[in-house]
Amino acid sequence: MDTKTQPAVLRHLRGTPGFRRITLALFASGLATFTTLYCVQALLPALSTQFGLSPAESSLAVSFGTAGLAVGVIPLTALSGVVGRTPMMTVSLFTAALLGIAQALSPSFTVLLVLRALQGLALAGLQATAMSYLSEEIDRRSLGYAMGLYIAGNGIGGMAGRLIGSLVLDLSNWRWALAVVGLVALGCAVVFRVAIVPSAFFVPSPPRVRHLAASVGRAFTDSGLLRLFACGFLLMGCFVTVYNYLGFRLLAPPFALSPVVVGLIFVVYLAGSVSSTVAGRLVDVLGRPRMLPVTAVLTLAGLVLMLSSNLVVVVVGLVITTGGFFAAHSVASGWVGPRSATLGVQGPAVYLFCYYLGSSVGGSVGGLAYGADGWRGVSYYAGAFVVAVLVLAFTLRKLPQARPR
């Protein structure tokens, strides 16, 4: 719908029915995305045993999914400008759910990796479009809160995927775990389709490859966006590394926990849902330049606590690390949209490319750190990433802040 012909249409403000429907739909989409994308983290030890893989090799099941997403996010952003935001997100969710169910039938680890890459590519259609949809349809005064709720869906999805995977694995095997997660994602896709509000401020545009390339290129010329892209890469590289190899650590001495208990520990992922929502509210009041350094410090503090050999302290550290990461991601991703809109560049798509590239590359390289020096190696590796984010966050405070619409 062209906004020039509909001047009376207003963007959705917090508390309105449209806002509630949009946030429910995007919450469900985030739930489906992270449930399917990261459920395999709980299955990595089982995959390692089944196929005779090292921890770093088994982590490719995560990396291939996020690599597919990273590769697809920019071209599918352009395609969403032709077919529309809501159709793109709907097809993305249903395709990813069906591919998730198909993974349960994988005859080999290679086939599983191919299906994971295709699933990541499908999810790119949702991830490439969701933030743009929110920026277009939500009033800027409520955008931080809406973005926080969307990230909260990601947090609960990450928890649900790991928890469901662990519980089903304890009762059966990794194949049934993947099948059940795929069915959960299919249910989320149905909820999304029923709840989503059609775009009112989306203006279709023909595919223009040169224009897209120029828009992406200009995104790299803004020093503020460059730093935010780096933050996304570093944050996700840290976070995925922690969750990729935490299961291996907790299954081994001195903890020697059972797989189902390790899965229950992943409930702390809920901390991300709370922190991202709170961060979204605080951003609307305090501003992003003040919030990003605080969230980075919280993440770093959690990593320090996780060095302990006391299980309670490790879990507390995991809660803080998880909460700090999701809050930081909520602040950084929410910052990219308005700044990109002001500059007229493809900022959100590039941010997501860097973010999921951090998951794919950072998580796999983190396996080398784990293989070389165990959990201490992971801690130093992940901690260095967060320190870099903290430095970038302080430099971002000195930049002139672009004003959204």
From TrEMBL:
<feature type="transmembrane region" description="Helical">
    <location>
        <begin position="378"/>
        <end position="396"/>
    </location>
</feature>
<feature type="transmembrane region" description="Helical">
    <location>
        <begin position="255"/>
        <end position="279"/>
    </location>
</feature>
<feature type="transmembrane region" description="Helical">
    <location>
        <begin position="86"/>
        <end position="105"/>
    </location>
</feature>
<keyword id="KW-1003">Cell membrane</keyword>
<dbReference type="Pfam" id="PF07690">
    <property type="entry name" value="MFS_1"/>
</dbReference>
<keyword id="KW-1133">Transmembrane helix</keyword>
<dbReference type="GO" id="GO:0005886">
    <property type="term" value="C:plasma membrane"/>
</dbReference>
<feature type="transmembrane region" description="Helical">
    <location>
        <begin position="143"/>
        <end position="164"/>
    </location>
</feature>
<keyword id="KW-0813">Transport</keyword>
<feature type="transmembrane region" description="Helical">
    <location>
        <begin position="176"/>
        <end position="203"/>
    </location>
</feature>
<comment type="similarity">
    <text>Belongs to the major facilitator superfamily.</text>
</comment>
<dbReference type="InterPro" id="IPR020846">
    <property type="entry name" value="MFS_dom"/>
</dbReference>
<protein>
    <submittedName>
        <fullName>Putative transporter</fullName>
    </submittedName>
</protein>
<feature type="domain" description="Major facilitator superfamily (MFS) profile">
    <location>
        <begin position="22"/>
        <end position="401"/>
    </location>
</feature>
<feature type="transmembrane region" description="Helical">
    <location>
        <begin position="21"/>
        <end position="47"/>
    </location>
</feature>
<dbReference type="InterPro" id="IPR011701">
    <property type="entry name" value="MFS"/>
</dbReference>
<feature type="transmembrane region" description="Helical">
    <location>
        <begin position="224"/>
        <end position="243"/>
    </location>
</feature>
<feature type="transmembrane region" description="Helical">
    <location>
        <begin position="291"/>
        <end position="308"/>
    </location>
</feature>
<feature type="transmembrane region" description="Helical">
    <location>
        <begin position="314"/>
        <end position="337"/>
    </location>
</feature>
<dbReference type="GO" id="GO:0022857">
    <property type="term" value="F:transmembrane transporter activity"/>
</dbReference>
<feature type="transmembrane region" description="Helical">
    <location>
        <begin position="349"/>
        <end position="372"/>
    </location>
</feature>
<dbReference type="InterPro" id="IPR036259">
    <property type="entry name" value="MFS_trans_sf"/>
</dbReference>
<keyword id="KW-0812">Transmembrane</keyword>
<keyword id="KW-0472">Membrane</keyword>
<feature type="transmembrane region" description="Helical">
    <location>
        <begin position="59"/>
        <end position="79"/>
    </location>
</feature>
